[in-house]
Amino acid sequence: MKTDDVSKIGKHAFELAGLGLAPFRFHSLAINKVTCPDGTSKLGGSCDYCGTAIVNEFRIVSADGKVSKVGCDCIAKVGDKGLLKSYRSSPEFRAAQALKRHVKATETFNALLATLTENVEKLKGLPHPRGFTDRATGKPLTAWEYAEWMFNHCGHSGRSALLKWLNRTLAS
Q: Is there a contact between 44 and 3 (Cβ–Cβ < 8 Å)?
């Protein structure tokens, strides 16, 4: 925030917002999600700095002991590199990132499995994308054999690439 007020120059943005005295340190992460009666969920809290609705509430503690909850975007945009580093290296943050990656990988796996099972016959009729042949018989391999091998032998990024390839191949 730009200002000409001499009393505000050089102060931390969280301090100006009334969240306590600088320096601030990361304390913990709380996930605040409200489940509605219809089974859906929505954001459960709000950032004390900007008022935006948030699910991941990053608790910070000021030098005078005041605990506040802020979103990750606010931690990033105030420019406090020490606070940013401490929250990114926390076990809670790393666990949340790992959970996001796991959820994405699971969604990709399920989409890939559904695409493969729905299109087995079509893939058996298409040639191998790299033109490989069976070493023993010399018979050309199919797109199904390629997809099956990739599915069983690649990791998360390979499955994601395989899903993109399948979608392109089946669309044409």
A: no
6: pLDDT strictly greater than 70 = no
Q: 6-14: which pairs have CB atoms within 8 A and are 24 or more residues apart?
A: 12/78, 12/80, 13/49, 13/78, 13/79, 14/49, 14/60, 14/62, 14/68, 14/70, 14/78, 14/80
87 DSSP assignment: H
Sheet of 56-61: strand order equals 25-31, 56-61, 67-70
Q: What is the pTM of this model?
A: 0.54
Cα–Cα dist 172/168, whole Å: 7
> pLDDT tens-digit profile of 77-88?
887 888 888 878
